[in-house]
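fwd from M.: "can u put these together and see what the complex looks like"

so here's what she sent:
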Amino acid sequence: MPDFRVAVVGSGPAGLYAADELVRQQELDVEVDIFDRLPTPYGLVRYGVAPDHARIKTVVRSLRRILEHARVRYLGNVHLGSDIDRAFLEENYDATVYATGASRDRRLDVPGEDLRGVCSATQLVSWYSAHPDARGGFDPAAESVAVIGAGNVALDVARILVKTRDELARHTDMPSHVLDQLGASAVREVHVFCRRGPEHAKFTAKELRELGDLPAVDVVLDPAVLARADAAAADKQARANLAAFEDLAKRTRRADTRKIRFHFWSKPVGILGDGAVEALRVEHTAVDADGSLRGTGECATVAVQLVVRSVGYRSVPVPDLPFDDRQGTVPHDRGRIVDPAGAIVPRQYVAGWLKRGPSGVIGTNRIDSAETVRSLVEDLKTAAVARKGVAAETIDMLLAGRGVRPVHYDGWLRIDSDEIARGRRSSRERTKIPDWETLLQLGLAARSG
Amino acid sequence: MAYVITGSCIDVLDKSCMEACPVDCIYEGARKMYVHPDECIDCGACEPECPVEAIAYEDEVEPGQQQHVSDNGAFFSAVLSGRSEPLGMPGGARELGRVGADTTLVENACHA
């Protein structure tokens, strides 16, 4: 039995890096149980990183070493809130790190947002990433699409929507029903709307340049807007973006290509349609002397049949934990959860997007989780409370007693091999399994040997 | 393509980049840090961590620093002084530890 057993809730990068730090530190004897509500680990690496960004997804090769560590266990298919709760974790673990991410999208709060044909980037990304909870997809008859947002997720969505079935089939792990629907798409134009100028966009230059490399797609933006951009005030990232936009703007446009059109200084004020989306109405914007954004009163209407909002994520409150509804995060002090009165909640910690909000890239979580684990280890070293060090078998028994059937790491490996085999049948690296039933069938199959 | 650590890192060795790298592909030489071009996954976590803005994506490296694009790779493909073979694919900087040698380009660089 270890001296301490720590629970990590969430097996995305933040949770995995927390586990990694816990088993790497030399001061305490710790074992870690990583819970996830899905039977598949890796969180947004699997269900958020764009499916055509294969190089970034290879981060899994180093993340899997964390799951394979002798002092780490993966317990998938365990739902916080129904299968286990804070009381269970507090009773059986010396400490808990919550790293459940930010799965809810922010709304535009404009009239017409509930029309058919309006969806969040989260929904669309979940669907094309084969998340087992994803529903729907989109209407392939839509010829003109509005994507609202100035971050990389907006670019991901725009790019996936204009790629051909062949490009997607060769370079992604999308399941066939997703490929078929995207392949049947009538999309001609994707309009990307940004509230501010090109110098303020949160895109990365690398993703912008990627748009220029799409063979059958032209990018359109107003050179006058670029000329007005305040390059002097821009930081390094913004200067790189402006250079990338200038390069895109210089290219010759071809007839008969799909188009991605950037619209800057435009904020959505309404979505029009009778039952389903027919158009997006935007108001042009400008910055006041004090830096605040205001509408100019000048409006434009663009005919679209699909509106995808990509204006940020927020966390879902964790049952029984403090939550700052305005920030959409759990209040904390260097990773220690803090209650509304400002007191530290003993032995409860937070990491990743649930801690700092939806910002940064995968590696940002390594630094973030390291901070949380430093606090945790410091607390356990000095804690007056007796150490629990509950045995792994005891946890298994307690979970079984609650009727919970976790998918262990070997179960995930069966899912993983099956997906690789499915891919191989059509000369791909992987084809994802999109449904709970098959995932659980493989994940829970009796262990051989 | 990969991220590149340029000459501004020489004799700075702040190492914040190392802590941010999700795949542990930033290695420590004697005077400078190096990104392994085949282990880097292009995530960009290191870039904003650098206090001297030494890190850039391969095709954004400034003209005066172009020699460092191939030099990051040379750290792993060339035989460094005091060694009998190249580092190759070490598979993780934390495990490997400080290398304690540099490429010829960096060895011969003037002090910052």
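replying to her w this: The radius of gyration of chain A is 23 Å.
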